[in-house]
Amino acid sequence: MPARTQPTIRQVRLGVELRKLREAAGMTSRDAARLLGTSPAQMSQIEAGNAGVSEERVRRLAVHYACADASLIDALVEIATDRTHGWWEDYRDVLPPVFQDLAELEHHASFMWVVGTAHVPGLLQTEEYARAVLAYRVPELPGSELEARVEHRMRRRAVLGREGATPYEAVLHESVLRTRVADRRVARAQLQALLAESERPNVTVRVIPFDVDGFAGASSMMLYAGGGVPALDTVQRDAPYGSVFLDAAAQLLAMRTLFRKVESVSLDPTGSRAFIHRVAEEL
Question: What is the pLDDT of residues 223-239, one digit of tens each?
Fold first, then answer.
């Protein structure tokens, strides 16, 4: 089977976790390859996410790596045997890979926590708001790519409304509500859409007002996506030149702590809806 030219974020994560288990067991990739009856080069491809691995091989490696975490192994098997061809595959040759990675991450997340201090989070954006944000770029995007990005962002929103929708909690700073990425009409429509989304049973929106004490987290933007087990959680953060994905145990612990710290100074959901409504009326 030829090596994958563009493994997905989940395929890469499977390889990373298998490598972590091997290293924790004090084994080399050559040792692991010998267990599977394959070459060290093929084992390296598996651990890089460039080659698939069967359920039987995942479980055999887990035994030899002395991994007793049955929940983790089952979650890794689920990733290894996943044959989902999501809608995001339509954009594989249209948009950069990070767009597919983010959509796939959201699709499989067991829960999502979001902190927004600059813009309304992507899953809560209206089409006009999204177009204004995505168009504010230097150099400007060609019209066809801009529209593809807007369409991709709108399709991502389906995860909040599907059957058995993912629990989603967003904490937004007041600056997000008051920043007009376009004009008053677009801003007002976005806030009304935000209120409507907050009525979904799986969606919670909280607001941090300007005048709250104890908030110095202007750089706290993040998406924390729950995995099949906590060890497979992933954090996505925006960087100056694109998105970064974090999955090291220490990073995940820091981001969980940061989210709770930000959440602790926000208004409760009822108070937040009243606050958003008041800001919308002031526009």
Answer: 999 999 999 999 999 87
